[in-house]
Amino acid sequence: xxxxxxxxxxxxxxxxxxxxxxxxxxxxxxxxxxxxxxxxxxxxxxxxxxxxxxxxxxxxxxxxxxxxxxxxxxxxxxxxxxxxx
Length: 85
Known about the structure:
This protein has one domain (2-82). The protein has five helices and two strands. Helix content is 44%, strand content 5%. The protein is mostly helical.
């Protein structure tokens, strides 16, 4: 998700995850969050599209906006070890 969010993925992966701004044309509280796809079955609830977007949205903004992947991994480990809500 870090690489996707910061544009480090190949062009073929563009559009794999959808932001709230791409779906809604009006302002909502979580307009900047990634939207998990609607799934009728529970098997798709474990896909990377669903779990990845929900996990990314739970991270605090100071971790999401780190400039390098090395800093992101370090802060993510510290966040997980110290306990996340």
